[in-house]
């Protein structure tokens, strides 16, 4: 099995597209960092942080004096004003917008690009063997078809995990070099009390929850690529469902069946900061259970189709 994975890994890196995906990921991290640093140097913030917080408090008071605010808006501005007052009372400046933590929070949103590149790999790693005819040579080896397909699946996930690591490491290095660690603190309102925000643990939790869409999109693309032997269909259908999944869930939200569709649960980041699903009675454990069932179904279909297919056809 290890030899098969090594072989798949070497074939993957012999493709120019693989290097292009890694380069593009690094580029989309580097360019925004450079732009942010450029404007930070060109237009430095005027006034002390205390002046900025005082101005913010005054702005919140003027906004709250308005009569067209909803209760939710009032609660939001009152919380923000309480946080600003806490900063002044406790000499707790906020971190700059251009700090290591804030930059890594920004680049964590680029995990969708990691998922896209992994989907492209998953969609083509099996279908390309059929389109080029190399699948016949591959299956003549004294290895079962199940091991061959498993090696391709594991290689795909290893590549995706590598992209995850590249995202984190490159973001950390660029953020540290350009912006530094930062000296302020982030605050939030919890149960009516102002508390310090756990920035790094929240960021790690976001990366963990982002794995839901990453895994399910990869397995679905792998399924379509294995069954239909078309990488373009697999990529197109997977990305279509990724971008329209929210609308599909909203359209079906009036029906109970929506609770049992994997698109409802794939975005686990909806459970961040104590949040919940837009669908009633849906919790994180329930979402994980549904995703696990769909993952098994996707794998069963992929393996059964691949093992029964006549490669001479």
From TrEMBL:
Residues passing through the membrane, by range: 20-39, 110-132, 153-179, 204-225, 232-253, 286-306
Keyword Ribonucleoprotein: no
Superkingdom of origin organism: Bacteria
Key words of the record: Membrane, Transmembrane, Transmembrane helix
PANTHER family: INTEGRAL MEMBRANE PROTEIN-RELATED (PTHR37305), MEMBRANE PROTEIN (PTHR37305:SF1)
Protein known as: ABC transporter permease
Species whose genome carries this gene: Lysinibacillus capsici
